[in-house]
Amino acid sequence: MLIRKPSDIPGSEITSEETYRHRRAFMVAGAGLIAVAALGLPKLLGGTTTPGTGEKLGTLKKSSFSTSEPSNSFKEISTYNNFYEFGTSKEDPARNAHTLRPRPWTLKIEGECLKPRTFSIDDLLKLAPLEERIYRMRCVEGWSMVIPWVGYPLKALLDLVQPKSTAAFVEFSTLMDPKQMPGQASRALNWPYKEGLRLDEANHPLCILGLGLYGQTLPNQNGAPVRLVVPWKYGFKGAKSIVNIRLVKSMPRTAWNDANPSEYGFYSNVNPGVDHPRWSQATERRIGEFKKRPTQMFNGYGDQVAALYAGLDLKRNF
Ligand code: MTE
Hints:
It contains 9 helices and 12 strands. By secondary structure, the protein is α+β, with helices and mostly antiparallel strands. Ligand MTE binds near residues 81, 82, 83, 174 and 223.
């Protein structure tokens, strides 16, 4: 990230409007609060949970994969975003993504599969029981959030197209339409935004097709109407506003790896032991908090996913 920023300051060190306002509230609240915050008590500064403006998604299945950590507020989740198709600062997507039209929408799945198929967004919303998945999300820039996603395992969708035995990887592509996504007129990245996973990663039960958050359809700035959510990897793996999924034989190219291969690898597993060339990955700042917290291997999902990487040198395959 941040290739186009003038300095090497990671995003976690840059004060957003939201954080700035939290800091002001914090300062006026006085010394008592400061003592409490210094203890690291969560969510005093995170604001309340305000509902979004999306469509309600009905009854959601609970998941044992959800964390019991408190979620960030809807406001935090929907106003501090990375979505370069709408600008490169954190506040740009909330301001600019109103030009995206998330309906009608189709998602085509093709490549190494027996039954390639195109799904409408209504098909996707009905295809499997919708679950609430409250996940820790860690951005490579050094900040994190807890997000109550709505979705279901990506595997439920991939199984329908019957991947061939030759399919080893999955490539995800975002919509390409500079009218709806004005940032695509710039050269910030090679458009359309692309990401990829190994097929076994894509089939892992933690990997979900994201269709909503806080019980409602996704806000445009969070990748409406359909995105990828992979909680043990850095946030940039989660391609937003996806229109194409392609099953392929070899490792696909990805937008950030193309932009800067020495900084953004294909795997991008959260790993406090492998620093980004310009900053440490050992700690992170949870949005809404001041104190940094240690980053966990695989973002804390190691018990579930470590086996996927048995025998792989994660320093080389970063
Ligand atoms: N997808 C597209 N199409 N374009 C982007 O710029 N940014 C990525 C990822 N998906 C991005 C994207 C990055 S860097 C992050 S951290 C997450 O989206 C942020 O998701 P959020 O804004 O919903 O928290």
